[in-house]
Write a structure and sequence with these properties.
The protein has 86 residues and is mainly alpha-helical. The chain has a domain of 59 residues: 434 Repressor (Amino-terminal Domain) (Orthogonal Bundle), CATH 1.10.260. The chain contains 5 helices and no strands. Helix 2 crosses helix 3. It is globular, with a radius of gyration of 16 Å. The termini are far apart.
Length: 86
């Protein structure tokens, strides 16, 4: 899932139904693409960025959620990499 995209969609009040219509694809197809179960093309990503009208770089807008960190981890410090001073 693309958290920045979801946040920008909420901020601009662009829901998935309207976005799918603007893109000319079904809501199901859009859902598959945004969930990562189907590939999102660069052309589609650029169109979404344009529809949102955000100045954010496309790489940031479509940055994938980091699944290596676990929010439910009992030790939240474990999510951060420790650096040993030289």
């Amino acid at each position: 899932m693309f958290l920045n995209l979801e946040a920008e969609m909420a901020r601009t009040r662009l829901n998935r139904t309207r976005l799918s219509k603007e893109m000319g694809i079904t809501l199901g197809t859009l859902s598959l693409k945004l969930s990562g179960k189907s590939d999102l093309t660069l052309k589609e990503a650029m169109k979404i960025k344009k529809l949102l009208g955000v100045p954010m770089p496309i790489e940031e807008l479509f940055e994938e959620e980091d699944t290596s960190s676990n929010i439910n981890n009992k030790n939240p410090e474990a999510r951060y990499h420790k650096c040993n001073p030289a």
